[in-house]
Design a protein that fits this description.
Order of helices and strands: EEEEEEEEEEEEEEEEEEE
Shape: elongated
Strand order of the largest sheet: 8-12-5-4-15-16
Number of strands: 19
Helix content: under 10%
Largest sheet: 6 strands, mixed
Structural class: mainly beta
Length: 282
């Protein structure tokens, strides 16, 4: 039996028959062929110069397994410092589980050629998953033009599982600055309000070795602040950071100020090199 597009090719006593897949309700086999594989399987044929049982190490690449970093920042009462923590989320849909695996994550813009994916008849499978939280212990080091994060213990990642592991050691009291930034914009769409008067709220901080996260990997940063009325944490915005080298500034754009409105005044206009330039005063 073989498949060609939407058709099945079946060998019978009368020869070969081509059957449309839409007209098939069930397929039954009298016996299981020796080479029938019913689950995702990798098979190698290995040649050895010695007889008897031998150990071998196999290296291969796979797809449908990925990771991402997520961070949480909690501002203090006067927005001058924050507590910073991070988790890594591993999503495994590769078709195989990895028991007691050594986990190494490569951060950076690693180039891979992706095959084109086809979805037949608009059908997409909803794959169930579970989420497991684990405390971690990643060690970071430079590796080629990237950064490598190695988990200091073994970890099991099952198929169709999403697992979260503590990515960085939480840092408390990281110095931060809240700043307001105005950038004139004429972009407008119905319901957006007057964007030309919006003032951005940003939180700035620097990566420091003393707070034990030299070079954070790309990921989403969610920012919270404690409500002193009941000590509950309130979400105040989020931003995505890129892969950031040590001692570089991080700027988190978390939203627009409610009570601050900017006014734009043109103070100078002149022609230069055949082009018209305007100098605004904000």
């Amino acid at each position: 039996m073989a498949a060609a597009g939407q058709d099945l090719i079946v060998k019978s006593d009368d020869g070969l028959e081509v059957i449309g897949r839409a007209g098939i309700e069930e397929i039954a086999l009298k016996e299981m062929p020796d080479d029938l594989v019913t689950r995702p399987t990798l098979v190698w044929l290995v040649r050895s110069e010695k007889s008897g049982e031998q150990l071998s190490e196999i290296t291969y690449t796979t797809a449908a397994i990925s990771w991402k970093a997520d961070y949480t920042a909690v501002l203090n009462a006067d927005d001058t410092a924050l507590d910073f923590s991070g988790w890594v989320t591993i999503d495994n849909h590769s078709g195989a589980g990895y028991k007691n695996a050594t986990l190494k994550l490569i951060a950076g813009d690693v180039r891979r050629i992706q095959p084109q994916l086809w979805v037949e008849d608009g059908f997409e499978e909803d794959i169930p998953h579970s989420m497991v939280l684990e405390e971690g212990g990643f060690e970071e080091k430079s590796f080629m033009e990237y950064h490598m994060y190695t988990l200091g213990r073994k970890s099991t990642i099952n198929n169709n599982q999403i697992k979260q592991i503590e990515f960085i050691e939480p840092a408390e009291g990281v110095k931060a600055n809240k700043i307001f930034v105005y950038e004139r914009s004429d972009y407008w769409y119905p319901g957006s309000g007057d964007q030309s008067k919006k003032v951005m709220v940003k939180i700035e901080l620097r990566t420091r070795k003393k707070i034990k996260w030299d070079s954070p990997a790309k990921g989403k940063v969610r920012v919270f602040k404690k409500d002193t009325a009941d000590n509950s944490l309130q979400f105040v915005g989020e931003d995505e950071i890129d892969h950031t080298p040590k001692d570089e500034k991080l700027s988190l754009y978390i939203g627009d100020a409610f009570d601050i409105v900017a006014e734009h005044t043109l103070v100078e206009s002149k022609e230069q090199f055949g082009k018209h330039y305007e100098k605004p005063q904000d």
